[in-house]
Design brief:
By secondary structure, the protein is an alpha/beta fold. It has five helices and eleven strands, in the order βαβαβαββββββββαα. The chain has helices spanning 41-52, 72-85, 110-117, 202-220, 224-227, and strands spanning 15-16, 58-59, 93-96, 122-126, 144-151, 154-155, 167-170, 174-177, 182-186, 189-193, 196-199. The longest helix is centred in the C-terminal third of the chain and has 19 residues, at 202-220. The model has no long low-confidence stretch (mean pLDDT 88).
Length: 228
């Protein structure tokens, strides 16, 4: 979603260009002994990609806060930084586990950043978790692979859907890497995180599709677009 991660021991040596303070995943910014709304999101996503395509070279770039706040410009600047760091050709695949509606349901300013910097890449984005056919962006852009979530018996109840969704993957009670040492007070109980967590959402279906594309590239030596 935001690219921010905790360097997890299971993949400590595999993440490239982890340099920016903005890339460090923060658990409890306000000190209330509860995880922020999107804390651990990037860490969780990296774990999914590492599991499904262990040979992928992963780069991260923080673009949203631990509360999930940001805008088109902060995301666009993150895209620009990522392209500059990964060389003249830029990244092969970009995962954007983030989404938003627009007032007029028309493409947002972020579309111009994607057109400018990611015209070579396959961009994979989460379709959103509102159980609605209303298009969410950037997933609904024609040059982006929009990904919905599956439950064991079909579409996950929360997953957005519609003709603008291009692929689906399991997104209910997904298990992946998380904070290694954080205790959260939740509804009178203490939840202890020791490196792993369970989470549901289209945010976790999108990296599975991205990882499948990356694995196809690795196995067959093809481009990201050919793999997709």
């Amino acid at each position: 979603k935001d690219g921010s991660i905790v360097i997890h021991p299971s993949w400590r040596d595999d993440i490239k260009d982890f340099k920016s303070a903005d890339d460090e995943d923060e658990a409890d910014v306000d000190g209330n002994m509860k995880l922020e709304l999107q804390s651990g999101h990037g860490t969780f996503i990296v774990g999914l990609i590492r599991r499904l395509c262990p040979d992928a070279e992963i780069h991260v770039d923080g673009v949203l806060s631990s509360y999930g706040f940001g805008d088109d410009t902060t995301i666009g600047e993150g895209i620009r930084r990522a392209v500059e760091r990964t060389g003249p050709d830029g990244p092969d695949i970009v995962v954007m586990s983030l989404s938003a509606y627009t007032e007029d349901d028309e493409p947002p300013p972020l579309a111009k950043w994607i057109d400018k910097y990611l015209h070579r890449a396959v961009v994979v984005a989460a379709a959103g978790n509102y159980g609605s056919p209303r298009p969410m962006y950037p997933a609904a852009l024609s040059n982006v692979v929009g990904v919905g979530a599956l439950a064991p018996d079909g579409r996950a109840w929360f997953s957005n859907y519609g003709g603008w969704v291009d692929a689906c993957a399991p997104g209910v009670e997904v298990v992946s890497t998380f904070f290694m040492d954080f205790d959260e007070e939740f509804e009178g109980m203490t939840r202890c995180y020791r490196g792993w967590a369970k989470w549901s959402g289209t945010s976790f279906a999108a990296p599975k599709v991205a990882a499948a594309i990356a694995q196809e590239m690795y196995l067959h030596g093809c481009s990201a677009r050919a793999a997709w």
